Amino acid sequence: MQKKVTILGGGESGAGAAILAKSKGFEVFLSDKGQLHQKYADILTSENIPFEQGQHSEDRILESDLVVKSPGIPDKVPLVVALKEKGIPVISEIEFASRYTDAKLIAITGSNGKTTTTLLTYHLLKTAGLNVGLAGNIGDSFAWAVAEKHFDYYVLEISSFQLDNIVDFHPYISLLLNITPDHLDRYGYDFQNYVNSKFNIIRNQTAADHFIYYKESEVIVKELEKRNPPVGKVEVSLDNVLGSGSYLKDGELISNINGNAFAQAFSELPIKGPHNAINALAAISVAQLLGISAEQISEGLTSFTNAPHRLEQVEVIGGVTYVNDSKATNVDSVYYALGSFDQPVILIAGGVDKGNDYSQIEELVGKKVKGLIVLGKDPAKLENYFSGKVPQIYATEDVQDAVNKGREWGVPGDIVLLSPACASFDLFKNYEDRGDQFKAAVRNLLT
């Protein structure tokens, strides 16, 4: 008898999970409470996978043998609670996909930097000639790739939401770049719940596996002391010379792992700032663990192109540089962004606040920010916090107005930086839409 698998959520991960489930002989049903993107509706129809949208047929879903849940659906929603009460397993797409591949998994998480690190790691491996796939939170469904392709390695960007519903997911190499308060609304405003979620990445790792982490993260180090996991540990540091591991010293990225030595000037890389030194060292560590040569690592580092919306230079107009960092959806990201510039900054921030604590950027803002433009429907928290701490504050709900104000305040040598610290959903579809509208508004200044 065919096992019944229900997919909750019909986005990229849901559609991918449905295709994989069908390919493995399951009786598949996909249910989305919202409206499916036409692209996914068309694919499901062409694959003869039954689906519904605009509702969840609970009686049908509660007859499932297994449920694969979109990471966007919290565990506390009544339908998920009912499934668990009935003893029906509810897992994530990355868990489901991992059950059907024998590829070595390189899983990357962290509150910040995971997209850049994932893309750079993938680029290093691909440049070196490895048969490697790229998937996860970065946009492509892991399950879809497993259903239709065959790779020896996968580089996966993994969010805390995806890690919440794993069971046996087992990376060969895991990376944890940092843990700072984020998504606390999802975790009952308890930071430890979020920490626990991130540490799920090493839950099934053994002494034969590797865990790369940032040594200067107090949260990670304290949690490791508590847990003492059996996994092989590889440290990344900006402040310490390591006998084994990867570190920055006198502007050089240095790595010594498994007797392999690597060194390259950080200035030769296309990515800048201390946060990107951490990201690069983490990616280099993966390459070292996989035995990629120093020459191949160097070639990959220097030919890398970063993702859009992450400290992306848009234009220089009248001597003022406009930078799109729309992907900075939490305070820690803004800390790293501000740390990347020595010039005076006009900061555009705001949006949907997720329980932000602005004290962690207060000192940097005081030193670097000559003006704060709050872009969002509810500017009060940012305005109140930074009132008297920056020379000028302006609030608006219009991105063109924000960019115009940046031009008005800017003088040659200044940076106008969109680095919001907040989610985008009050005024925009997502952070990409926010970044694209910012870039369009900047380019309007040229006309």
Automatic annotation (TrEMBL):
InterPro entries: Mur-like_cat_sf, Mur_ligase_C, Mur_ligase_C_dom_sf, Mur_ligase_cen, MurD. It is found in: Cytoplasm. GO terms for biological process: cell division; cell wall organization; peptidoglycan biosynthetic process; regulation of cell shape. ATP binds at G110, S111, N112, G113, K114, T115, T116. The keyword Transferase does not apply. Residues 108-287 form the Mur ligase central domain. It comes from the Bacteria. Pathway: Cell wall biogenesis; peptidoglycan biosynthesis. It catalyses: UDP-N-acetyl-alpha-D-muramoyl-L-alanine + D-glutamate + ATP = UDP-N-acetyl-alpha-D-muramoyl-L-alanyl-D-glutamate + ADP + phosphate + H(+). Keywords: ATP-binding, Cell cycle, Cell division, Cell shape, Cell wall biogenesis/degradation, Cytoplasm, Ligase, Nucleotide-binding, Peptidoglycan synthesis. GO terms for cellular component: cytoplasm. Belongs to the MurCDEF family. This is UDP-N-acetylmuramoylalanine--D-glutamate ligase.
